[in-house]
Amino acid sequence: MSERRMAINRLRDRLPVDAAAVDRFVARHGSPIVEGERATFLFRGEADGVSVRHRVVGLPDPLEMRRVEGTDLWATSMVLPEGSRVEYQLETRHGEHHERFNDPLNPRVAHSPMGSSSVCAAVGYAMPEWVHHDPEARPGELHEEVVRSKALRREQPVHVYLPARFHPAMRYPLLVVHDGTDYLNFAAMKTVLDNLIHRLDVAPLVVAFVPPRDRLKEYPNHAPHARFIARELVPLLTDRLPLLDAPEGRCLMGSSFGGIASLSTAVRYPGMFGSLLLESASLVFTDIGFEHGGGPYFDPVVKFVNRYRARPTRPVERVFMSCGTYEPLITPNRSMVPVFRAAGMTVNYTEARDGHNWENWRDRLREGLSWVFPGPQKYVYE
């Protein structure tokens, strides 16, 4: 679409315009205005400056907006390739005072442990239909257990998912999910599991959702955490539930720091797990020097990944990896694929035009879970 034909430029062509014309424009288009591969963000109000705040690698942040002459309407446009999804907020400046908030003209909002953000979806992006409640899908059961952990020196809550039609005469694979409560709350993972199992995309499985107490301490190659998972939680669940007691029946999963927790646990206990499912894992490393730019919390991460890259091992047979092309972790994730493959692991790697957020990780669940634990539907069509 040419610049001339964009809605905001058609409005500028009509200047001067009165407040009623701006009212009609905003009511008609809302924000952002997605036209082909262009997205125009709008804000209405008095301010000394307005900008779009985001975490898209390659775009200026903040992305400054310009006032439409003679009005209280602000606008800026950016290229948004087909299939993209971007989370953002707006920021206003009044003198030295800055205020950030969700786009008041955009009803679409994504949630995370850090709060909420507005969502801009490009042409070609649609929320997967298997994310929504399917009344025909029989629901699995989710119940909480409390594990007394010697490794962690505390009681550790765990939410255990049992699939619909669970039967003690069957044997089920086990998926252990780091940041488990967040996957349930912000990635609709129980609903996703119910739907994918019902549709035969994913085999019926037992899932242990494990929340951390201090993820920045416990997730980057923390020996007590790995010991809890491998030597306490898995044996406990295997003793209580009809699980496949073999590596190919076990998978560790996590996003961001949870991806590091999954990998480091598998490295500490090689051969215990058959698969890893890593979403935007914080695989930060340095090939030279010590500056990684992630701050002190990333120091143990970088130390672990550097050591692994120097002497790669094969702790599991298969790894599913996903990452957003708009997040800073895209380069280290791409770089680790050949390292894992050279170590002898089968790697299924995928990218999405999205960022480091829970809806990106939610949208990759079908592809990842159906590859790790395929249902009969996968065998029929593949």
UniProtKB/TrEMBL annotation:
Gene Ontology biological process terms in this record: carbohydrate metabolic process
Cross-referenced InterPro entries: AB_hydrolase_fold, Esterase-like, Ig-like_fold, Ig_E-set, Mycobacterial_A85_antigen
Gene3D superfamilies attached to this UniProt entry: alpha/beta hydrolase, Immunoglobulins
A Pfam match: Esterase
Organism domain of life: Bacteria
PANTHER family on file: ENTEROCHELIN ESTERASE-RELATED (PTHR48098), IRON(III) ENTEROBACTIN ESTERASE (PTHR48098:SF3)
UniProt name for this protein: Enterochelin esterase
Organism of provenance: Pedococcus cremeus
Source taxonomy: Bacteria, Bacillati, Actinomycetota, Actinomycetes, Micrococcales
